[in-house]
Specification:
Elements (H helix, E strand, L loop, with lengths): L1 E2 L8 H6 L5 H12 L8 E8 L2 E5 L2 H12 L5 E7 L6 E5 L2 E6 L3 E3 L6 E6 L2 E4 H4 L9 E4 L15 E2 L5 H10 L5 E6 L2 E3 L7 E2 L2 E2 L3 H5 L5 E3 L4 E3 L9 H5 L5 E3 L4 H17 L6 E6 L2 H7 L9 E6 L7 H9 L4 E5 L6 H20 L7 E4 L4 H9 L18 H14 L7 E3 L7 E5 L9 H5 L5 E3 L5 E5 L8 H5 L5 E8 L2 H5 L1 E6 L2 E3 L6 E4 H10 L9 H6 L4 H10 L14
Parallel strand pairs: 3-4, 3-10, 4-6, 10-11, 19-20, 19-21, 21-22
Antiparallel strand pairs: 1-2, 2-12, 5-6, 7-8, 8-9, 13-18, 14-15, 16-17, 23-27, 24-27, 25-26, 26-28, 29-30
Amino acid sequence: MSIETNISDIDDQWLESLPVQTADGQARRAAFSAATSTKQTPTSLVSYLSAGYVLVIGDVERALPVAQTLARQDELEVVVYTPVYGRKVEPAHQNGIMHLHGPVAKVSGYLGQFQVSVNENGMSKNIANLAGTGQDYFDIVLDLGTTPVLKNHTLPPGYFAPGWDSDALSDALVQIPDMVGEFQKPKYFNFNPDICAHGNSGLTGCTRCIKSCSTLAITSLGDSIEVNPHLCQGLGTCATVCPSGAMSYAYPLVNDLLEYVRQILNVYREQGGNSPVIVFHDGEAGRKQLTSLTDNLPEYVIPIEIEEIGAIGIDTYITALAYGAQYVVILTTKTTTALTRSALQTQLHYGVALLKGMDYTADQLMLIEPDGANQLVSKLAGLVPFPALEPATFAAFDEKRTTLFLSLDHLYQQASTTNSVIELPEGAPFGEIQVNQTACTLCMACVSVCPSGALEASDDKPQLSFIESKCVQCGLCDIACPENAIHLSPRFVFDADARQSRRTLNEEQPFHCVVCGVPFASESVIKNMHKKLSDHWMFQTEQAKRRLEMCEDCRVKDMFDQNEVVDVHKKPDLH
């Protein structure tokens, strides 16, 4: 099953209420009306199944009355668990409620699948089993502790942690009875493991998505990552920070969102609108904030509502500028998580650096978290219009870097700058690889782990080449290099031909087998092998040392001819 995203009609009633007192307001109204036909790519659904087994965690004095309140609902079965340091798990009935005491519990999972266990004398015990629920898990958890058992920045569906907030507890008691049955939500993400830069050959490179996920839905599998769709709540930061585009937002797809923006801006211009300002906002707190300002928003402000503000990445707002927006504002609110805000700020930092490198105005990209209505209104009203650029006409791709490069190339062609290369802040997803040619032996370990194909080896000679447009600065090549000969240098090359061309980082003459003459390594590799094995017991004779200069076939043949086939795992006889 799938669900379709309808960007264009998220809140038609509010959009129609926006004032139309100027030519800009009339153009905005016409743009929204024309964009209602925009179609969005559907995404699949994620299902939850809850039978109504509730675990209430907390002290007896508080948890038991709350549990009794919930137990009055026919659809709920309630168990109380009270953590007591050093006490064994002891199930008992108290006032009609199954009540257990025991060590601090470990909780994992989501609505319909909460695993709750304790470690007792080195053995893991399942609380649902001990309580006799008839299943191995709880469907809902109400955690009344001062500090929740789960430490997620964003708690999973079905987990309530009101603390001592009476309003939050009342809200939980209202919601919990309605969380019985089957529920569905959109699958918010798409993941392409083929271009993921997380790891290779047991080495760890990019961890941006893992560090930015406030729901802890993303975990490392070693060379790749895994996303639990039931834990994912669509905050979007994983897609925003992903340097390769392996992780992308699916509700909506970025190319669908950008197509909507392109249509809005095209009609706005055609209808006589000037100096459009795009304000991206989410569908809850952001919409509420803007709705309260309806009569005070400048009519050149074009609000674009999305599911979560964290899904707005550098490719989205740079492309919006290429499509003709003069300013792009990302509106965060008090409900925006700290991890999301940090990710947005970091990505905006890269975007501003790119704009400044082209001599555009830095505040064309803004992240706003208003402390009050007046701050937002005054900020938007104070924006200074400037001569409009020729808008880009290309359609956005469902591929992050391709769309972003097209947008940057379009903006650069109309820029006044003479900069062809600019330095970027550390951590930026663009840059070059610098190689210490003296240290590099052309072993090609870097090539073997490069996830994007930015590093290449020649088929016919010892040569290391590099394509900068493919480099995502994941650092795997640096980690894999046994000679510490690689250094990452974040930067951006505005010359598209130079960015996409292959250039040589290091090369040598090939070393030829001393027996058959076949080239099989670089001279540096052979020299390095002699140096590293000079004290090894297997390479103390002249004949053994000479074998290092033979190709694999000749080396094996020579060992048989000399009757020196040895067990390399056997320790030498030193007597």
